[in-house]
Specification:
four-stranded mixed β-sheet; de novo design (two linked rop proteins); globular; 8 strands; alpha/beta
Amino acid sequence: MIEPVKHISKNYGIDRSWTLEVYERTRGYQAARKALSMEPAKIIDEMKAANIRGRGGAGFPMGIKWSFMRPHPTKPAYLVVNADEGEPGTHKDRTIMELDPHRLLEGCMIGMYAYIYVRDELHLSKKRLWDAIHELRAKGYLGKRPFGLKDYPLEIHVQTGAGAYICGEETALLNSLEGRRGEPRLKPPFPAQVGAFGCPTTVNNVESIASAGLALMMGGAEFSKLSRLHEVGDGGCRLYGVNGHVEKGLVVELPCGPSINELIAMAGGVSKGRKVKGVIPGGSSCPVLTPDEVFHMPDEKSPLHKYHGMKVFDVPMGVDTMRIAGTMLGTCCITVIAEGTCMVRAAHNLARFYKHESCGQCTPCREGTGWIERIFEKIETGHGDLGELNEVSDIASNIIGNTICAFGDGAALPMLGFVRKFRKEFEQHVKDKRCPFNGSIL
């Protein structure tokens, strides 16, 4: 059984853990001071060695992303922290901002001049971040000469979003940050060349940036070795969330690579002693997995071959293992769905969300998400037919890969997963012209 660790969450549970006084008692800001004495290339090397795969959902290596930045002769460079956290089922970044905001701010200082884009509804997160920034300014840790060590102007700002899920996409976030409509941008140019206010910009997730100080102080390679999946370049430790039909929802810090079954056990098992019907592994855009699925990696040369033939729920959760399983790791906040749940209603619930949150810029996404939602509503209420059910696959396939950003894929892939894995349940709704579960999610 995998055991919890205390690195990112070291200060969770300590009285007034969000204050500078507490953070400095636990070696806070030593990494930022160290970074100010290092060459940027050396910092990036440590981040590469740490194998921090993006903690916001995409899983792109943070060190490589940082290496894309190039100094501009006249323009400043920015770090933008994506704290939107609008993915249904995701609830771990806010714990960093509320319980240990200085850990995030220290990561920002290592990445330098920063904007933190926070979802409007996260009022406590915004307050704690601003209070922490004021503490840093009062002590001279921010400003023209950080810590009094170096003439390197450094500021951190908190920018409130308006609660639009699409602004979790990095270029839509940048548009919103600049006061524009929250719509994704065409790429290229990429943010590393033309980002916030036309300047070179790196966009990273809250937890990714909060991990930077740990990796720098521990040493990138040593940080990476904390993971069960270090050998496949998925390093360190990270926060995992569990919600849905479990005895107790939680956020826990673990070495990268716990299994789904281990996470469910940590949450006290499935509520009311029921069996698992499905698990969404990392936020609603990740296709659902079922307990009878088997992991396929027949290539004996692959380091993941040792998991070949195992049940997917027993395989370490990583960026690559979940991709091979036909889903995504996403944000590592799993949603457990118990037996007795109407999967048609669950799919319809998510389809409504994606229809509402589509920015409408791309026709396949704007029209396709609404079309799927209407079909699911008809099936759920006993007015659908098999012809319309068969259309879902075509509609979703025409969304995937045909939009400016990944929102369309994130909306379509889960719908395909529900229909393919619970086809008989959808067909039963059509045949009986009613919901056999009385339309209830228990």
